[in-house]
Amino acid sequence: MAEESQEASEDLKEHDSDENFALASIKNAIEDLYCFRDSYYVNNPSASETEKNGDIEDKLRGILASLDVNEGSLKKSDRAMYHMLRGKALNIRPQFETETYEALSRAVKFNPKLVEAWNELGECYWKKGDILKAQNCFEGVLKITKDKVSLRNLSMLLRQVGETPEDKLKNVCDSVDKAKQALELDITDGNSWKGDILKAQNCFEGVLKITKDKVSLRNLSMLLRQVGETPEDKLKNVCDSVDKAKQALELDITDGNSWYILGNAYLALYFSGSQNAKTVQEAMSAYSRALEDPKMKYSSDLYHNFAVALKHQEDFQGALQHLDKAAALDPSYSNPKEKSQNLLKYLTTLDKMISNKGDLKPRKVKTLLASLKPHHLGPFRDHATIKAKKFKELVPGKNPNCVLAAKVVCNLDSEERFPLTLCTVDEDAVCFAVTIYNLAEGKGFLIGDTIVIPDPLVCKAHIEYKDHVISFSNIRVDSPLALVVNGRVLNPSSQAPISLHVEIKRE
């Protein structure tokens, strides 16, 4: 009898081991499924989106079948993990589904401290559009443990909520903080999503009530950027989003996805009105760190958002290269391809217009320059320390204690509203571009206007792209209020901060 009892005990242990192995194997299969989705176009560059979705569904059905086979033999202690795995597998679908929600709800019911289930439930709520519940899920995780996924999701979420401009700014800062905390926990995590914001926020915040969790923190960071009734609320939420992203990084400094969320939080903060050059530099630095993670090399939206930052910094070569990479990683994602085409058209047209001095005839240019008078310098006329200079006397970079006067010879049309781009000539008839940022919509300049630029920031552009070689000089103006136009300083109403939507694509 003792031998039979021992054999039965060993059989039971072997059975338990088989069950644990089965769930672990299914968990690995789900991770492989997400990797298959993210790298699909790398391995199948000519496939259609329909083919991609069909192949994903085929693999998903296989995983669900494996789960069904194991359901009847589950121990009570494995039920939570079983339902979490089912919900996570189903969560690969882009839309909210009741089946996914029910599986994840069962998972957290069986084990209220199952962090991964709370994070998946938060994402499910986000897809549905219920931001507060999503935030509660992520914050709930962070009350259990410090989790990178919750942190970076909070980072995204925080940039989307806020009732006043102050609230929105605070949320953006919190978003960056959550993204950083997520990275500290795991810099290799490459999953991102976007969806039902309020309920998702509730889920993530619920997690944070349990433990400090990087997943909840970064998810909150993402969510916070999507909520807010007023400009003040939205700005506060973006600040909170930055904070959540930072917290996620504190949990795992090597998590590339958390670095990506932090970059998005900084970029959102910059375009929420801070307009601090350091902020956009921090965004690009975070994107660069994200790309050090091998898992992020399949993220088309990472390359897209990095390109947005590079373009704003007038690194046109880098922007085009990153847009091409984004388009190659996901051919069904039309935005990068369109932006690349528009940017190339803008650059080639600008190069041509500078070479041709706005297509004005020499006599017209001469007439315009003859009308350039000392009184056009406005407050800089006869200034004791600030001197007028010609373009050829300037050096690359900022030129302090001087002004440059020029005549507008053309306005360059562009598919994007910012920056306003002018072709201008100085008193020597040297033609160069002027890019003006933060100009209010509806404001502009006429051919023949005289603009005076203090402390001109000279940039040299050189682009070698496909069969194009483009080179030109331009002066960057970050605020129109710095200019003197036709002898007068511009009214404050001429300025309006650039607003931008950060692209976070959920497949």
Automatic annotation (TrEMBL):
Task: Spans of TPR repeats, please give.
Answer: 115-148, 300-333
- Which Pfam families does UniProt cross-reference here? TPR_8 (PF13181), TTC5_OB (PF16669)
Keyword annotations for this protein, in alphabetical order, are: TPR repeat
| InterPro entries membership | TPR-like_helical_dom_sf, TPR_rpt, TTC5_OB, TTC5_OB_sf
Q: Where is the Tetratricopeptide repeat protein 5 OB fold domain positioned along the sequence?
A: 386-498
PROSITE patterns, per the entry: TPR
Keyword Plastid in the entry? The reply is: no
Electron transport among keywords:
no
Q: Give the protein name, as stated in the record.
A: Putative tetratricopeptide repeat protein
